[in-house]
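User: Assemble these into one structure.

Assistant: Restating your components, then the assembled model:
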Amino acid sequence: MKSPSELSRVAFYTPATGATTTHGIHVFHCPDTVGIVAKLSECIASRGGNIHCVDVFVPDNKPVFYSRSVFLFDPARWPKDALEKDFQNLAKFFNAKKSVVRVPDLDPKYKIAVLASKQDHCLVDLLYRWQEGRLPVDISCVISNHNRASNTHVIRFLERHGIPYYYLPTTLGNKHEEEILNLVEDTDFLVLARYMQILSGRFLEAYGKDVINIHHGLLPSFKGGHPSKQAYDAGVKLIGATTHFVTEELDGGPIIEQMVESVSHRDTLESFVQKSENLEKQCLARAIKSYCELRVLHYESNKTVVF
Amino acid sequence: MKSPSELSRVAFYTPATGATTTHGIHVFHCPDTVGIVAKLSECIASRGGNIHCVDVFVPDNKPVFYSRSVFLFDPARWPKDALEKDFQNLAKFFNAKKSVVRVPDLDPKYKIAVLASKQDHCLVDLLYRWQEGRLPVDISCVISNHNRASNTHVIRFLERHGIPYYYLPTTLGNKHEEEILNLVEDTDFLVLARYMQILSGRFLEAYGKDVINIHHGLLPSFKGGHPSKQAYDAGVKLIGATTHFVTEELDGGPIIEQMVESVSHRDTLESFVQKSENLEKQCLARAIKSYCELRVLHYESNKTVVF
Amino acid sequence: MKSPSELSRVAFYTPATGATTTHGIHVFHCPDTVGIVAKLSECIASRGGNIHCVDVFVPDNKPVFYSRSVFLFDPARWPKDALEKDFQNLAKFFNAKKSVVRVPDLDPKYKIAVLASKQDHCLVDLLYRWQEGRLPVDISCVISNHNRASNTHVIRFLERHGIPYYYLPTTLGNKHEEEILNLVEDTDFLVLARYMQILSGRFLEAYGKDVINIHHGLLPSFKGGHPSKQAYDAGVKLIGATTHFVTEELDGGPIIEQMVESVSHRDTLESFVQKSENLEKQCLARAIKSYCELRVLHYESNKTVVF
Amino acid sequence: MKSPSELSRVAFYTPATGATTTHGIHVFHCPDTVGIVAKLSECIASRGGNIHCVDVFVPDNKPVFYSRSVFLFDPARWPKDALEKDFQNLAKFFNAKKSVVRVPDLDPKYKIAVLASKQDHCLVDLLYRWQEGRLPVDISCVISNHNRASNTHVIRFLERHGIPYYYLPTTLGNKHEEEILNLVEDTDFLVLARYMQILSGRFLEAYGKDVINIHHGLLPSFKGGHPSKQAYDAGVKLIGATTHFVTEELDGGPIIEQMVESVSHRDTLESFVQKSENLEKQCLARAIKSYCELRVLHYESNKTVVF
């Protein structure tokens, strides 16, 4: 290690000073080895980037590395293509399984499609947050297997904001997965907002990107249908909601976020459902926000790191 | 209904004024019908009892009645045998499935036995609370299937307080259920404080009274062994503890109390266990306190009312 | 106390059997004495009313009585005027400070006015719950001191549902309290949904009924303006919201409900505000629902009983 | 930024492989500038250290830098004196206000003194955790201004573990601050476990190191004495406990940790106190554990960063 005098002789990093200073987010996942943070941060600093936030995680029992860095930089000095190239080089060097850099203020917003069924409390809540600017996404379309009258609040809202709404009446024999794939193929990820159809493994593989689901139960308890009724019948004193990535295994994908609320003998099935709906809205919104901020990373086969 | 003038002509209840005023707790469970609260409260009032607290619960969908009343009364005026007779009469009248009256300051404390294994955090916590006067029970004995050295904190504590300690080394072939039954037959209920043996249906039937267990998982998730590891492997973001009545079905009995805490990718199996232990202590202690205050009633086949 | 045989000889209460069976809620607050529960429940039973829920509370240190009873009855057998008369008689008999009976399915809904300012997240949340049938009130009008464009979501919603909206631009010199009084005089209670004007003691006295406010801070911390900033500057690790009755003392009235959420050094003032808004919506909605169900009673000078 | 081929030509960091691999924790606080993470991590990597965890925080509105890094290294390769020198050089280079490196498995444990008064639930809880190996400190002594009989559980425990216990009966005129200073001068920090005396500014300055206090109220509400009673009289629905650094301002120092629990009209002053005690134990223990893990840093004049 260099002494202070030696340090001062090093051509020191010059900070970003441009008027177009903005922040970038970089997430990285690779086999662990010595020097990853050093090289990532040296790359950023050499371009005048000022790191404001770093989260690094290496599990005790496994030589894998996860990081999320947020840095301030001047795109005039470190343009998009150079930014991406630099991180690609690092990704190659470290054999990274994942290396993503995003500049929220410059990059296009994440494009999502939202799938819903009859219960639309989660959909409505997402739309309200989106309208408030709290959900930094573009909503490509809303797909529903429940038929809504055209004068309902949701339909009106979507019309007013120019968001296409598609009614695809699923049946036992037809899940309309082809149509859905066509409608969503240019999205960055999917949100199942109490969408009550199971997407097949074929769909998931064809879509190829992340699908986030809100399950109205505290997984791994109460998988499948009517989790509120399952919970009610089980006599639990806490009910919950779970946001998770969708895999072929029903309600089995990696968990992102969970929330609970108390119930007692005084709760009816109806109040179980109402309390659950309140949790579902918050749980789904939080998970989506975290995901958009690149805080959510797949970890092992069925877990997540949520920075 | 009588008019105010008529009411005043009625010989009105005279309050308890004796120096020995104390409080009684009555719990009642019977098929629902009109007039139960009227008769229970009229009985109490006719004896000068002053009701301070009543909880009544009749589920929407089932004609069953549960109540818990706390009343101030003068034992000089309403002695124990009359108190019990009066409530017995009401119990017969309403075909009650359960009618219990307790006078905490006069009746003997509940007598319990505590069963433990190697992990003694719950046992130690109960003993400390008991010593502080926060656990209104008499501890008849502590039974363990783990061999503790005689100079450990727990053994010393039990010796100092004159609480017998029995080491019964269970094996696959011998659960010592006969010995345990003998040791605990005069107790009012049993507490399994992380006792890692399954009590057989035969034991439960022979014992015949309530057995309360702390399960270090959020039931119905993670039944059985190593729930912390099950939770860790499942990638949950919330872990919990559950206190429940023991039935023949492993970890399946009616739930009394549940508590949760957050976990994240940063938690190791060790911290899962530590967080769980913190929850278990609180969850078990709360359930036992509620039980001693007659707040916990069996409800349907697998639930509880906890007033 | 009568023996079972004596009990059976009593002309026993006959249950309500009419097809128009509905439920009534009665709350009662009077000086404590022996026999109140007996007389209340005997009154209900004598009319065939079946008590489904009772909460009684008499504080340890003060001879005051609070109860809330829910009972099923047949209005054909116990009509409105008799119902009210019977409870009035009991109220006179016991010198009750409060005796209210409501039959939610038959009585007119509570009529409320909602006052809001610029931040409308609470208003929007209430309107959505109201539309969903979760807020059992009639919204007489919405009054705002913030000027909203006519094409905003809120204004459209109110128009569509025929709810009058009044913009009263308050200034230092003019709070428009006279106009507000006129607009709200026929309401049952007022809801201040982040209404940023202080109602004067004169207004409160003239209005004479309950006013419920949501304060975006965990009282008694952070009274007054910008509680999120106050909390942010104070370096707290928990922020909260408080619903309370409004008195002349700013943010000093009896607390009804409080909720908290964690914050850390990573939270900015903006995220403090967002987390607070999420709490405010839930906290206000819960308090209003409890209030409509007659669960909230004034207790001592500055507290509440919330059954 | 170098291309992959250039990167591979760089003499790459060689990992620590010694059998004595252990982990080190480094915390750093300095004026923000570009390149701090780069230099810190490069230093660690150049010595074969493998970073397992990094937390970096730079507030949006202030150019100050905080980091906490955990790295695996081989003391045979990077001995203590070199370790400290290297970080000192970096501290000088960046004008750090704080730079601390600890090697928990090799360095002496933190030495603390615990001050208590009559209520000893926090003291007992800390002693139990310490005995369980959950509190990685050496307890230099326990000082109390409450006179305990020699056969109490606490005194026995301290005797058995060879921890000196000093009874210093404080009066209005004499806080024994000189004696306390002498007894604690070689400690690393102090823990006030419900110590009911206010330490003077002179004491704090003379001691010069951190003093951690548990306040049995949710600051900034209910400063000073009897916060449970203050909360009870205020009619709150949530009570809490706060751990904070002690400053001259009574209960005003930077907050480290806060926890809450619900209360209702049914709670008496006694149950307020009991619930509070349960919170105090957990809140204090968590804060001390975080502090020992170097997670707690002073931030601005009255806040903390808690990684």
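Residues 5-11 of chain B have pLDDT under 50 and may be disordered.
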